[in-house]
Amino acid sequence: MKNNSMINQIHLKYCAAIVTLFLAGCSGNTSLEIEVINSLDIDRSLETVEIDLALLQSNESLKLISGKSYKISEAGSTKELLSQLSDIDGDGTHDVLLFQPEIGANSSKTFTITLKDAEAPSEEIPTCYSRFVPERTDDYAWENDRVAFRTYGPVAQKMIEDSIPGGTLSSGMDAWLKRVDYPIINKWYKKELETDGSYHEDDGEGLDNFHVGTSRGVGGIAVKVDTAYQFSRNFTDYKTIETGPLRTSFWISYAPWKAGDKTITEKKFISLDRGSNLSKYRVEVEGSETISVGLTLHEKDGEISTEVEHGWVSYWEPYFGSELGTGIVVPSNAMLGYDEYVTDAKDLSNLYAQVKVANGEAVYYTGFGWKKSKQFSTKEEWNNYLKQFSKKVNAPLEVKVK
Fold first, then answer.
1. Mean pLDDT of all residues in the chain?
2. Is the confidence at residue 8, as pLDDT, over 90?
3. What are the sequence ranges of the domains in the chain?
4. What is the pLDDT of residues 49-66, one digit of tens each?
5. Domain 4-119 CATH assignment equals 3.30.470.30
């Protein structure tokens, strides 16, 4: 893993909000006022703002001590907004305070941060949740209030290699088509493994009927060699970083793999925030200056839409009596192009976004929208979501200390 200074640089470049620090005169105050500024001509909500804890800890009256936590509210209001302490680099220490303001187009709002008595830990499963799933071989699954995903570990790979039934050989990303806003991962695994029911059947919450196979699923990566694509096998190691009301994050790593005469190393830091259909991927890569992020084309009967100059690609397809959109958004002009790769080989037809690797890292967002969830009804609605997402990620909410 890269050193903390490099990680912090990356965080500042790609975080959900730009924080401008004006520290003079802050010490001694029992609260801190921040202004959140929206420079776009669209309303903003369900976007995560990150406040550097170093800023808060520099104020003696706002230092976080045992039994205390932070409260965020709009200036002039006592109503508390949902917030979460977050570890952005996976070192086990909180780095930022998260919250999600609602800001109108071309406007700003002021918020107040104070200390409060900490609440007892809740035993409820948080909205943004992820975990390793040893009871189903060795999946890793994650979800929020809109979408859910999973991918596959080394035991599932070994079962395939040893011809043991029930294994899975894939580094693709599986989509779980949920249509409720509460956590379903634990419920669905229990239904599949401990009851006569199955998560392949929709009992009102959605189902797992998304086929991955050896495809890239929703956001798996590959490297192109001549006219074909090469990719890793199942992940070999993982670590859950956090779960909470606003964000879950974790990392998974892979054994080195070959792409022609290149040896590729791959480690993915993945996070999913409340209200987002797209997971954020920060991938550490060695051995290639570009990666290809894929969306499976399934039956190759869907519609592809692309805006490379704005950093997004989309695939909208008919799917088991409904319709499904998948997409990739790449920030900071790092999308180099796309490739509609179609072949007769099973599961290997994918729509690829070609992404630049800078300083050994690539960042992208990827996810899906299922018509039956009533989140998106048409291809146009899905594509507009990706277009708006791209605008927002490239013009993050700006935060100033007042």
1. 93
2. no
3. 4-119, 132-393
4. 999 999 898 888 899 888
5. no
CATH code of the domain made up of 132-393: 2.70.98
Token output for 341: 């790769």
Tokens 């907004």 -> residue: 81
Tokens 């929703």 sit on residue: 218
Determine contact, residues 95/68, Cβ cutoff 8 Å.
no
Question: Distance between CA 65 and CA 115 in Å, rounded?
Answer: 9
Q: Are 49 and 108 in contact (CB under 8 A)?
A: no
Distances in whole angstroms, Cα of residue 292 to Cα of each of 233, 260, 328, 355: 15, 15, 11, 6
**Dihedral sign of CA atoms 220, 94, 185, 205 in order:** negative
Q: Please give the full DSSP string across 170-235, using - where no structure is assigned.
A: --SBEEEEE-SSS--HHHHHHHHHHSS--TTS-SSSEE-----TTS-BEEEEEEEETTEEE---SE
Residues 86, 396, 325: CA angle, nearest 5 degrees = 85
Q: How far apart are CA 61 and CA 277, in angstroms?
A: 38
> Would you state the structure tokens that stand for residue 376, as one six-digit string?
């998106």
Q: For the sheet containing 68-74, what is the strand order?
A: 17-20, 397-401, 31-38, 107-117, 68-74, 80-81
The predicted model scores a pTM of: 0.93
136-161 average pLDDT score: 98
What does the pLDDT read at residue 66? Answer: 87
Span 348-359, pLDDT tens digits: 999 999 999 999
Other Cβ atoms less than 10 A from the Cβ of 150: the count is 24
Q: Tens digit of pLDDT for each residue in 238-277?
A: 999 999 999 999 999 999 999 999 999 999 999 999 999 9
The span from the CA of 102 to the CA of 375, in Å, is 19
377/173 Cα distance (integer angstroms): 23
